[in-house]
Sequence to fold (372 residues):
Amino acid sequence: MAVQNIILPIVYFLSRLRPIKEDLVIFADAHHNKCPVSMEGILNRIKSDNNFTVLEFYHDFNSAGSVKSLIYSIKFMKLYAKAEFVFICDNFLPVSACAKRKGTAVIQLWHACGAFKKFGYDTAGDIPKYYKGNVYKNYDLVTVSSEECIEHFSSAMRLDKSVFKALGVSRTDMYFNEDFIERSKERFYKENPNAEGKRIVLWAPTFRGNPANPYTEGSDASARLADELSKSGEWYFITKQHPHIKKSVIANTESDIPTEMLFAVADLLITDYSSVIYEYALFKKPILIFAPDLEQYKSQRGFYIDINSLPGEVIIDAESLTLETVEKAVSHFDESKMQCFIDRYMTACDGKSTDRIIDYIKEIKMKDKEDI
Fold:
């Protein structure tokens, strides 16, 4: 907190003595060492515009030492004080270290669609009690997947509803790109030749605990299901753990292929409380909700929506996660219920989200010039 509330603000205020550099755009993230997929679409569009100067700052705070993270943060603050736009896609504390100057717009391209499990200030544990100030301070725009999400995001981030715009989530544009779909299939079957001719089950759970000490729930049941599906000869089981889980608990089924590419080949998604439900819904394919710790999770974190309203059967008992359940989920798939889900929570994710976000940013830029 000393770094966040004293050192970084001092660096910022000294650096803001210089004027804002018009058209300076910063892309920053504290969870990856390269551009996260959630920002790639916007980054590529901004880079293609010769009117902008783009700087990228990516640094995984969880894997780097405190000294390197401090140096990174100081470098960011010096440029933050002069930037016209700053793009982030997750919690990024340096942006909220102090009041920013007029003329700099912070755009939060939030990495998740919908609003399922509670987050931010709506649940215990996400924001440390010792943190002073608002983690989400200084945001000028937060893009969300539909109007339905705005109230929940506003509550979780403690920001006025006017900050949130249902422009869509940029990363979802890829799901409407046929070239991306074909590349995903080619890569999957090249790396998994034994999956040819079989139906694919993707298990993609979220993590429990906190990012510093994460764990997965339901691993034993999923391992049993993987074995049962393998013996059937008709199914192929693949696992994709949350990025916070560094080592797979079912190593023989873990895939190195990005989750978004696995959506293209999966015939069935099995997940729990993960927001991948919303993205996968765009493919209009069956979903199973495996939630063996539902009551505990509900009491500890909580949800914005009723889990039983999701377009897929909810399984609580581990013994019920079987080949028969999988086959039933596929054969009894209700596409109309899935479409209703999309129409409510993913209305702005139609393959044109990036276009709308770019247009809105241009409006911000134009308004700033008019104010001057």
Observations:
- The chain has two domains: 2-172+351-371, 178-345.
- The domain at 178-345 is CATH 3.40.50.12580 (Rossmann fold).
- The two ends are 35 Å apart (CA to CA).
- The first helix runs from residue 2 to 15.
